[in-house]
Amino acid sequence: MKAITYSSYGGPENLTLSEVEEPKLGPAEVRIGVRAASVNPVDWKVMSGGLDPLLTTTFPVIPGWDVAGVVEAVGLDAPEFAVGDEIMAYARKDWIQQGSFAEKMTVPVRTAARKPASLSFEQAASLPLAGLTAWQTLTRLGVSAGDTVLVHGANGGVGSFAVQIAAALGARVIGTASERNHDRLRALGAEPVAYGDGLADRVRALAPEGADVVVDYVGGVLEQTLAVLADGGRHASIADPTVAGAGGAYMWVRPDAADLARLAELVEAGSLRVDVARTFPLEQAADAFRASMEGHTAGKIALSIGE
Q1: From the DSSP assignment, how many helices (H) and strands (E) are in the chain?
Q2: In the prediction, which pLDDT does 299 show?
Q3: What is the number of domains present in the chain?
Q4: A single Gene Ontology molecular function, please (predicted)?
Q5: Based on the number of CB atoms within 10 Å of its own CB, is 98 exposed (0-12), middle (13-18) or buried (19 or more)?
Q6: Within-domain flag for 264
Q7: I need a labelling partner for 39 at 20 to 30 A (CA). Which of 4, 17, 64, 270 fits?
Q8: In Å, how far from its chain's centre is CA 244?
Q9: What digits encode the pLDDT tens for the residues 229-247?
Q10: Structural domain span for residue 65
Q11: Residue 122 shares a structural domain with residue 136
């Protein structure tokens, strides 16, 4: 099968379109014909060697953790799915080697949910990692109706999902972004504020009592977070481990089939939309990585792979 691979840590120039063997099907896995994958910043951070202290890497590596496709074979202990099912997954395994930038992939059933019929494969592949990150940070902080939630980086891949999820949970949402993206934030359900100098004053002008919950998806904003946090408020970051020393939580997303199914329900209810900014064919994965690294897209970057 065709797959994008790299054989050493480095940048997008290391990516190669290769012929590789189909992966073996484990008992609690399904093998899918991949229809789409998506690019997340963690993918090129992994490729640079940034997660080497955390996860074992076996070269050559097929990158990618987000995937959507059609089940072609079912493992001995995978009754959750049948051949022909359309699924999506944050298919992260316990080591780095077999990813989603390939024509076929084996997916642990603990990571997968059925694809919402209303989403294209490219949209479905763009939801799992970023959507789960948003869902898990918000729900672990106990966001509920009536809370005021501040989202740092509200126009980004994770932040835009967090805005919508927090609103669906009944919260009032304030989101930071550059002014050119404020109309998009309003459409997603947030009250936009510009980031940078004076952020705390702008947030306090909207919410004098402060934010009950602050979620940070960009890093470098701990001072502003503490300045706007209400008495007894909760905060978390996926980008700044120092929050743990300031009463917050440093969070890492986990694959979770039940959480992903809940996101699918929000999609089908019309409460969560998935914006795909750009789509690339598999052989242009290096260009997709470069577009992600530029960081200027309003929406996810996807790879179209199968038919």
Answers
A1: 9, 17
A2: 87
A3: 2
A4: oxidoreductase activity
A5: buried
A6: no
A7: 270
A8: 22
A9: 999 999 999 999 999 999 9
A10: 2-127+274-304
A11: no
